Amino acid sequence: MILQVLLTIITQSLAYFYLCFRRKKEETKRKNIVIGYLVTLCFTIIFANIARQRTTDLLQYTRLLTLYQILYCVAVVDAEIKIIPNTLLFCGGLFQTFFLLIECLKNSTAVKTVFIPSLIGGMLSIGILSCVYWLSKQAIGFGDVKLMGMIGFYSDYFCSFSVLFFALLFATIYAFYLLGCKKKSKKEPFPFAPFILFGYCLSIFLLK
Question: Are residues 70 and 91 in contact, defined by beta-carbon separation less than 8 angstroms?
Answer without folding.
Answer: yes
